[in-house]
């Protein structure tokens, strides 16, 4: 599947450019309806009746085309129309007329009278043109559809879902399968949209790749095609010093585990060397646990500064288990002034909840690449002004404001850079919602930065690897299980046969 995601507005432009270049709109609609009809034939049992709900715009038009094609296949099809068909416009009107009758006005009974297990519904009420919350009959029918629990194939988007941001406008259809066109939209990946779509299929309706490219999309599905070219497996003649030296700054004696998890993940992600920097009081506990990861005692911020005089230490993580307060703020200040790639996570971010302007001043002046990895709570403390936005817009706004790459973690993690580029991740296992997995993610980002990846690519690749490691580790995983799983993920990316 292509990685570019198009907003509904970009998709409308791609449609318009294709039509202007000589392909009639009704031809695009025919192809869309054909794709829907194919999906329905796959999803519906041989004896199933098909009931199609058609709306007042072109989404309904796709439904009329699918109805005509399915009837031609001899399938029993009932069509219900929302609104007055005499008001249909352009392509939808043509598709309605070509259907040649056999329709009824949409009613709640159309949905509620379906015998259980015998009907497949097609939701062609609203797609890209939905622009306000649903109400009245449309909303009641959608709620009845969800209550009935019958299988639904959604056309383009489950009706009620905002394709731009994955949020519901009033109510939304819960589909088993969604057929969209040309490219996926952000709403197919962002929650709750992803769950509402069921499985998502992309049908080619003849919009050229060059047309999509001319729109210069800025939003992507997070997949290897986005960052794989930035990462290189070890060269045959290379040595560990070619792959960077990551530093993880540890918390105090009582909270050292997070740093160890992160450091091990940085090593697993391929950093050549990894050192945990800790207060002398925590040295013994780290030394007792760590093997390939090195440990170095440093005394306070000045000790850390002295350590960083060694230019080979090229990427630093601070935050996991660090503790909140003035001490953490001064470490952040020192790191952002150190011309190193820096990852700030957890307590490093929370420490600025009451000093947001201070944080913005520091982050904007950072002298090296900077990645922030907040979960929702940390994000809201640091960027309360963006808390009401959808996750895609919120991550982009924060990245722009602080001049850093922002990884807004969740089931649909968003990675955004200050220029507006964004990736939405969809490979996370729900089992990743457990203690310590955020430390592992921050460590992977740091390990990739140490290898010289640019900040956005490092962050996006890390989120994907973390998701894959979750899948490999499987149900019941704890964060330690991600470390051996990362070995298999890296091997897969390197294309090794021997996994
Ligand atoms: N050539 C193409 O472009 C192609 C497009 N394709 C298909 O077209 C779809 C986009 O079509 P679209 O732009 O007509 O929008 P659509 O989703 O049908 O809805 C618009 C209608 O809904 C109405 N309306 C909106 N919100 C409402 C609400 N809350 N409650 C009630 N009414 C509401 C709005 O009414 P109005 O705002 O004017 O009152 C308008 O009448 C796209 O998803 C894909 O399936 C494919 O065929 C490929 C080629
Ligand atoms: K729909």
UniProtKB/TrEMBL annotation:
It comes from Polymorphum gilvum (strain LMG 25793 / CGMCC 1.9160 / SL003B-26A1). Residues 223-493 form the YjeF C-terminal domain. Its EC number is 4.2.1.136, 5.1.99.6. AMP binds at residues 409-413, 438. The gene is nnrE. SUPFAM superfamilies: Ribokinase-like (SSF53613), YjeF N-terminal domain-like (SSF64153). This is Bifunctional NAD(P)H-hydrate repair enzyme. Gene3D superfamilies: 3.40.1190.20, YjeF N-terminal domain. Catalyzes the dehydration of the S-form of NAD(P)HX at the expense of ADP, which is converted to AMP. Together with NAD(P)HX epimerase, which catalyzes the epimerization of the S- and R-forms, the enzyme allows the repair of both epimers of NAD(P)HX, a damaged form of NAD(P)H that is a result of enzymatic or heat-dependent hydration. Catalyzes the epimerization of the S- and R-forms of NAD(P)HX, a damaged form of NAD(P)H that is a result of enzymatic or heat-dependent hydration. This is a prerequisite for the S-specific NAD(P)H-hydrate dehydratase to allow the repair of both epimers of NAD(P)HX. In the N-terminal section; belongs to the NnrE/AIBP family. In the C-terminal section; belongs to the NnrD/CARKD family. Coiled coil: none annotated.
């Amino acid at each position: 599947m292509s990685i570019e995601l198009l907003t509904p507005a970009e998709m409308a432009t791609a449609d318009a450019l294709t039509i202007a270049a000589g392909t009639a709109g009704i031809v695009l609609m025919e192809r869309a309806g054909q794709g829907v009809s194919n999906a329905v034939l796959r999803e519906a049992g041989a004896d199933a009746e098909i009931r199609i709900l058609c709306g007042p715009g072109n989404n309904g038009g796709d439904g009329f085309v699918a109805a005509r094609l399915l009837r031609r296949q001899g399938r029993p099809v009932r069509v219900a129309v929302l609104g007055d068909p005499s008001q249909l416009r352009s392509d939808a009107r043509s598709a309605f007329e070509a259907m040649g009758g056999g329709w009824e006005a949409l009613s709640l009974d159309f949905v509620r009278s379906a015998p259980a297990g015998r009907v497949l519904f097609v939701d062609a009420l609203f797609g890209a043109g939905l622009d306000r919350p649903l109400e009245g009959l449309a909303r009641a029918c959608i709620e009845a559809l969800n209550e009935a629990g019958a299988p639904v194939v959604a056309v383009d988007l489950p009706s009620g879902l905002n394709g731009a941001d994955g949020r519901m406008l009033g109510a939304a259809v819960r589909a088993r399968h969604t057929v969209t066109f040309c490219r996926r939209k952000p709403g197919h990946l962002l929650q709750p949209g992803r769950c509402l779509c069921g499985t998502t299929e992309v049908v080619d309706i003849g919009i050229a790749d060059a047309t999509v490219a001319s729109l210069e999309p800025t939003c992507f599905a997070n997949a290897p095609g986005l960052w794989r070219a930035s990462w290189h497996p070890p060269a045959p003649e290379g040595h560990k010093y070619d792959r960077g030296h990551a530093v993880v700054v540890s918390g105090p004696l009582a909270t050292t585990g997070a740093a160890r998890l992160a450091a091990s993940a940085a090593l697993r992600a391929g950093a050549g060397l990894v050192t945990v920097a800790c207060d002398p009081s925590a040295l013994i506990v780290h030394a007792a646990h760590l093997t390939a990861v090195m440990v170095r005692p440093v005394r306070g911020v000045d000790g850390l500064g002295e350590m960083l005089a060694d230019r080979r230490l090229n990427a630093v993580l601070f935050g996991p288990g660090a503790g909140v307060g003035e001490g953490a703020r001064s470490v952040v200040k020192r790191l952002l002034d150190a011309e190193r790639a820096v990852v700030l996570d957890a307590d490093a971010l929370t420490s600025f909840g009451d000093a947001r302007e201070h944080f913005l001043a520091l982050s904007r002046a950072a002298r090296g690449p900077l990645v922030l990895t907040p979960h929702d709570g940390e994000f809201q403390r640091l960027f309360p002004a963006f808390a009401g936005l959808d996750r895609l817009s919120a991550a982009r706004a924060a990245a722009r404001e602080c001049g850093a790459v922002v990884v807004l973690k969740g089931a649909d993690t968003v990675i955004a850079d200050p220029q507006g580029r964004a990736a939405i991740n969809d490979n996370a296992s729900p089992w990743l919602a457990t203690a310590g997995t955020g430390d592992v993610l921050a460590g992977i980002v740091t390990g990739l930065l140490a290898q010289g990846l640019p900040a956005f690519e490092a962050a996006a690749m890390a989120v994907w690897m973390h998701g894959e490691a979750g899948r490999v580790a499987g149900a019941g995983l704890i964060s330690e299980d991600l470390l051996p799983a990362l070995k298999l993920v890296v091997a897969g990316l390197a294309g090794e046969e021997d996994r």
